[in-house]
Amino acid sequence: MMITPIKDDDELLLNAYCDGELDPVSAIEFERRLTADQVLQARYVRLLSLRRAVRALPRFDMPAGLEDRITSGLDAASPQAARPRRRGWSFQALAAAAVFGAVISGSVMLTMQRYGQREEVAREVVAGHIRGLLASQPFDVASSDRHTVKPWFTAHIPQSPQVPDLAAEGFVLVGGRVDVVGHEPVATIVYKHAKHTVSVTTLPAGQTVSGQTIAGYNVRSWGDSQFSYIAVSDIPSEDLATFEHAFSTAPSAPEVK
Predict the structure, then answer these.
(1) What distance in Å separates the CA atoms of residue 231 and residue 125, rounded to the nearest whole number?
(2) Total of domains in the chain
(3) What is the pTM of this model?
(4) pLDDT one-digit tens code per residue, 221-254
(5) Would 214 be classed as within a structural domain?
(6) What gap in Å lies between CA 210 and CA 230, rounded to an integer?
């Protein structure tokens, strides 16, 4: 794997990539660089995790009496205050600050870790979508019949998701493929909406990610009791929300025996 020092232009590209401001061609090229450059990849993970962690930091109410104790501490630290009182408050203030700092630090680190894991899943799913677009066709099995696609998944992965027919809502089933997320094979159902491709990757329940834009592609996630679903496409976010509603409310297909 190539390792090169990060440049100023790379820093600008990295921020634009994280903000979803790169055009699809530039985003795909940058995605290739991320795969090949370990230093750039590490900077990307840290930057994205930090952004998400800062936005999601919990807000804490000020403990009762803290303001009075701080004021008393400032008074105790003044030159006119008696030396014993200043020493007594200084120790209490340092102890309180240490405990409070430990709580905040632990919360920040836990939040960053969780967001880092979710961002990694989202990036892997988007990478699978891009690989599908770069291939000769974005699926391993080509069919508009859900009774063909679902059994194909059953033969290739441990759990096969429902494959709803959404043609009436403008999303035509064209096939499915097996992607790899976190070293595990997962089902990805492929739909077409006009000339656009919508990939729906199914993960174990509880692995949803936040709605966002990665490498110029919109990402939307939802779940049910069995699976988490992550949809990726370059269609507008409003259309992707319509797709989610159609997918999540579609009736389950009866089993074909």
Answers:
(1) 9
(2) 1
(3) 0.57
(4) 999 889 999 999 999 999 999 999 999 999 876 5
(5) yes
(6) 10
